[in-house]
Amino acid sequence: MDKFSAMQAFVRVVEAGNFTKAADSIGMPKATVTRLIQTLEKELDTKLLNRTTRKVTVTADGAAYYERAGRLLGDMEELESSMSRAKASPRGRLKIDIPSSLGLAVIIPALPDFYARYPDIQIELGVSDRPVDIIGENVDCVVRGGELQDQSLVARRIGEFHLITCATPAYLKRHGTPQHPDELANGHTLVRYISPRTGRLYPMELRRDGEEVQVNGRHMLAVNDSNAGVVAALAGLGVLQTLTFLVQHHISSGALVPVCGGWCSEAKPIHVVYPPNRHLSNKVRVFVDWVADLFSKHDLIQRKSTLPLPMQHAPAAPSQPVALVA
Questions:
Q1: Which residues of the chain have pLDDT under 50?
Q2: What string of H, E and C letters represents the secondary structure of 62-127?
Q3: 301-325 burial string, b = 16+ CB within 10 Å, else e?
Q4: Which residues contact 215 (CB under 8 A, 6 or more apart)?
Q5: Which of 31, 226, 251, 296 is deepest in the core (most CB within 10 A)?
Q6: What is the pLDDT of residue 178?
Q7: pLDDT recorded at residue 78
Q8: CB-based contacts of 245: which residues, under 8 Å, 6+ apart?
Q9: To 10 degrees, the CA torsion angle through 144, 148, 149, 151?
């Protein structure tokens, strides 16, 4: 048995969810893929897959084998990519996870430039605000905003973002325009944000001249996605605190109006994060360098014209990669 082919076939069946799609993705007849996996199960003396007429699911032993096999195949891709030809043109699959806000507004629209430079890289892109287990889900790298939690990973700071508090003119006409954060907690309805990791409601945080105020006001709607929050604010559902780059054009057009002038939220870092054992992968390296360069030049990230005057300052230069240690 060609164990490498069997391993590759098994990994693709797990990822595709059926034998037909897996066979098409690796250019093998379906019968060959079926035979390879049957032989693999016989040699391992372990059932890897549960098969029905409608779908294929992985067993507990199969899930463990898939995780190790996926990493082994990835290591083999990296070995090939380390050769001189691959260095000039990195190739292979790259599994990346990004927040929906940064993905839709910044990263995905710029991907044609990435593919123009690296046409032989295939990206599997997870776009959501959910927490991702980089090691457990075999993800090559993630882009994350805010402070990082996992101290075992390698992180490179590639930028920062700011938050702004705003609402529609129609909402403010009905309820008045707050000038101080305390007013948000009395007589106003907020659009709140829920942590996708913990389910906890985030407070609105505003500061001015060394004073910091946390607002946990009344809300009718709470969301776990930044883009959903913007849509809710545009619908007049309340006062929203969100990323400046998401509402820049809405404020420029007058659809949203900043409130609590002079009060700002502290800048939050943006990192690209990856497992320490993958820091030498050429395909990961070129993506990290590309996204860092993208953020350093992107107008929606660097422009702060929607921010109150005290926060108008030049962005900090992206730092070098550092291992996160306790």
A1: 279, 305-326
A2: HHHHHHHHHHHHHHHHHHHHCCHHHHHCCCEEEEEEECHHHHHHHHHHHHHHHHHHCCCEEEEEEE
A3: beebebbbeebeeebeebeebeeee
A4: 181, 182, 184, 185, 190, 203, 204, 205, 206
A5: 226
A6: 93
A7: 65
A8: 105, 106, 161, 300, 301, 303
A9: 120
Give dist(CA 73, CA 77) in Å, integer: 6
Taking a C-beta distance cutoff of 8 angstroms, is the pair 165, 241 a contact? yes
Cα separation, 110 vs 267, whole angstroms? 24
Q: In terms of Cα–Cα distance, which of 37, 19, 41 is closest to 29? A: 19
215, 181 contact by CB (below 8 A):
yes
What 3-state DSSP class applies to 320? coil
Rounded-to-5 percentages of helix, strand, coil across the chain:
40, 25, 35
User: What is the predicted pLDDT for the residue at 289?
Assistant: 92
Q: How far is CA 275 from its chain centroid?
A: 15
pLDDT of 55 reads 77
Q: Round to whole Å and give the CA distance between 73 and 79.
A: 10
Distance (Å) of CA 269 to CA 160, 161, 224, 236: 4, 6, 19, 29
Single-letter residue type at 60: A
* Res 323: pLDDT: 38
Using the structure block, give the residue that is written with the tokens 């101290």. 151
Rounded to whole angstroms, what are the CA distances from 126 to 23, 104, 307?
23, 11, 30
- Best CA proximity match to 114, nearest among 130, 133, 96, 132: 96
Nearest partner of 204 among 176, 175, 233, 231, judged by Cα: 233
Cα 34 to Cα 9, 10, 48, 62, 203: the distances in Å are 9, 9, 12, 15, 53
Looking at residue 88, its pLDDT comes to: 63
Q: How many CB atoms lie within 10 A of CB 2?
A: 10
Is 40:7 a contact under the CB 8 Å cutoff? Answer: yes
